[in-house]
Write a structure and sequence with these properties.
The chain has about 210 residues and is mainly α. It has helices spanning about 10-15, 30-40, 100-105, 140-150, 155-175, 180-190, 200-210; strands at about 60-65, 80-85, 125-130, 135. It is globular, with a radius of gyration of 18 Å.
C-alpha cells in the first residue's frame, strides 16, 4: 500500500449529494464521475489497497469506514477511495469470486487497527515484501499490518503471483536489452511511474539494482 493524497472533491460530487443522505440515491453517473476523478487525480489509477492498475469498470468506490456503521460518513469525501473489484486474481476471466481488497473487506472495520492509506504518509513502512511477491508486516506495527493483510487478503496466492509475474516480465525485458546505462535508466523510469502495477513491490524487488 502507498499513501494517497486526497484533494478537494469535484463539484460533480459536492453539488449532487442527495438530501436523503442515501448512497443508493446518488446516481450511477455521479458515482462514475467521482470514481474517475479519484483514480486520475489522486490514485494514479491504482487500487487503494493492492496497487493493481485499474480502469473505472474494474473498480468501485470504497467507503473506508463502512456505511452500515458510519452512516454520517457516507458522503464524507475523505472517507472515499477507489478499490479494485477483488476479482482480478483469478486466472479464469469468468470467475467472479471476490478474493481481495474492498469487497473482501466489506463492512469489517476496526478503528484501532485499520491503516488508512489516505491518512498515513508512511503507510508503506508498515509492510515488507519477499522476492516471490509475498507481503508481510514490518517491525513498525506488526499487529496493525497483520490485520490489514488478513482483512484485505493481500497475500492471496494469485495476487502474490501477479506481483512476481510483473517483476519477472520487466527483468526479462531488461536482460534482453543487456546490461548498459540505457537499461538502467529504463528501469529507473519504470520505478518512477506512479501508475505502474504493484509499484511498492517493484521498488523493493529492483532496489538492489538501482540503489
Amino acid at each position: 500500500m502507498k499513501h494517497i493524497e486526497k484533494k478537494a472533491p469535484p463539484r460533480s460530487f459536492t453539488e449532487h449529494i442527495p438530501s436523503s443522505g442515501k448512497w443508493a440515491e446518488f446516481s450511477r453517473t455521479r458515482k462514475k464521475h467521482t470514481k474517475q476523478y479519484m483514480l486520475e487525480q489522486e490514485q494514479n489509477h491504482l487500487c487503494c489497497y493492492c496497487e493493481k492498475n485499474i480502469k473505472g469498470a474494474d473498480a468501485h468506490i470504497e467507503h473506508i469506514r463502512p456505511k452500515r456503521d458510519y452512516p454520517e460518513l457516507t458522503f464524507e469525501y475523505s472517507n472515499l477511495l477507489v478499490s479494485c473489484q477483488g476479482t482480478h486474481c483469478s486466472p479464469d476471466e469468468e470467475d467472479t469470486t471476490v478474493y481481495i481488497c474492498g469487497h473482501k473487506k466489506d463492512s469489517n472495520f476496526d478503528e484501532d487497527l485499520f491503516l488508512d492509506p489516505s491518512q498515513l504518509r508512511d503507510i508503506s513502512a508498515y509492510f515488507e515484501f519477499d522476492d516471490n511477491g509475498g507481503i508481510s508486516p514490518s517491525a513498525k506495527d506488526p499487529i496493525k499490518a497483520s490485520y490489514m493483510i488478513n482483512l484485505l487478503q493481500l497475500n492471496e496466492p494469485q495476487l502474490a503471483q501477479s506481483r512476481e509475474n510483473v517483476a519477472k516480465g520487466i527483468r526479462i525485458n531488461l536482460m534482453k536489452a543487456g546490461a548498459n546505462p540505457a537499461s538502467r535508466q529504463k528501469l529507473k523510469t519504470i520505478l518512477a511511474n506512479e501508475s505502474q502495477d504493484f509499484i511498492s513491490f517493484l521498488r523493493h524487488y529492483f532496489n538492489p539494482i538501482v540503489s
